[in-house]
Specification:
Layout: E1 3-5, H1 23-28, H2 62-76, H3 80-90, E2 95-102, E3 106-117, E4 120-123, H4 125-137, E5 142-147, E6 154-162, E7 185-189, E8 198-199, H5 202-205, E9 213-218, E10 237-247, E11 261-264, E12 276-278, E13 283-291, E14 293-297, E15 315-319, E16 325-329
Helix pairs in contact: 2-3
């Protein structure tokens, strides 16, 4: 029987703890909370372990991107869904899947990251936490950001930093604990992506409200057919929806400075963690990090119950049909030290 978690902020694509998962379940299932996820055979193509971007693609300028989005708006005739689709196309090569290339095992996808500056990618703190866990469990593992639609662009990860407040729990006047937050991080790569997103400024962020149309571009994988991904040729998924509410980490109205929790109805599952959430003009307003889920017994691809090394039943999860998911407002990125 499944058990609903009314507000689970466990990251979409969060790495499972080694205390409750066997090594085989942890790393054979693309590092998601459900060990039943199996990657397709074509995904087991080993990365070379070397940076394949000796001659990086030309990075477009901000002026060129503004021209692209202006042309997109002109072509779309003002329709927000078409504008979102055009923005996703314009910035398609800013998005990549974070991959662990494990010696002797090949590439394993972890989550989504996206370029916001030269050699800098934004993702979730729990995604870079997974990088650290893989590095500890499998010495010699290399990490890459594999660019959407560009099998020739696998940007080697050099370093990363989490938000300094990630993992902290705050308590308000009424004794309530905060519901997560600060799940944002920065990755530095050896080379730059061909294009990078623009970040919304305070003026734009203050215009966010319930009903605003948004989209994301990322790599949802958990419980999807074939993992929804060919690691050797990653193709990002684009979804559209709306902002459903804006609040602080206590789910209250704390005013603009505190209201960094952006709730939305963008469909998401494991792997979408770190995806950029953008408005029709293509500017990023938030970063996806979690959602409401049901807890349930995890099963493998043959329907058999999965047990950990101690014989305990592994708990899995599935998204709640209410489609209320979570994102961090993008100005929190300014507080992350650059690696």
């Amino acid at each position: 029987m499944s058990k609903e978690k009314s507000i689970s902020l466990s990251g979409v694509g969060r790495f499972p703890s080694r205390s409750s998962y066997s090594r085989k379940a942890m790393f054979g299932a693309a590092a998601f909370a459900l060990a039943s996820l199996a990657m397709p055979a074509f995904a087991q193509i080993s990365f070379t372990g070397e940076d394949t971007t000796e001659t990086p693609a030309k990075t477009s300028t901000a002026a060129e991107r503004r021209t692209d989005t202006a042309n997109a708006r002109q072509r779309s005739g003002g329709d927000s869904d078409t504008q979102l689709a055009e923005a996703a196309y314009t910035y398609r090569e800013a998005v990549g899947v974070v991959v662990a290339s494990i010696p002797g095992q090949g590439p394993t996808p972890i989550g989504t990251a996206w370029a916001f500056d030269d050699k800098l990618f934004a993702t979730n703190s729990h995604v870079v936490g997974a990088i650290a866990d893989y590095a500890e469990a499998f010495p010699g593992t290399s990490f890459f950001v594999a660019i959407n639609g560009r099998p020739d662009l696998r940007l080697k990860v050099l370093s990363y930093r989490k938000h300094p407040k990630y993992g902290s729990v705050e308590v308000d006047f009424d004794g309530r604990e905060s519901a997560g937050g600060y799940d944002i991080a920065v990755i530095r790569t050896a080379q730059s992506a061909p294009v990078h997103f623009n970040l919304a400024n305070d003026s734009s962020l203050k215009l966010l409200r319930s009903g605003v149309k948004v989209g994301y571009l990322g790599f949802p994988m958990e419980r999807l057919s074939g993992g929804n991904l060919n690691v050797s040729m990653p193709i990002a998924t684009m979804q559209t929806g709306i902002v459903t509410s804006i609040s602080d980490y206590f789910l209250s109205d704390g005013g603009y400075d505190a209201n960094r929790m952006i709730r939305h109805n963008l469909p998401a599952t494991g792997g979408a963690s770190g995806s950029p959430i953008f408005t029709p003009d293509g500017t990023v307003v938030a970063i996806l990090f979690g959602g409401n889920v049901f807890g349930e017994v995890a099963r493998d691809v043959n329907g058999r119950v999965v047990f950990d090394d101690n014989g305990r039943v592994v708990q899995g999860r599935r998204p709640n049909a209410a489609m209320i998911n979570f994102a961090e407002r993008i100005d929190s990125l300014n507080e992350v030290p650059r690696p």
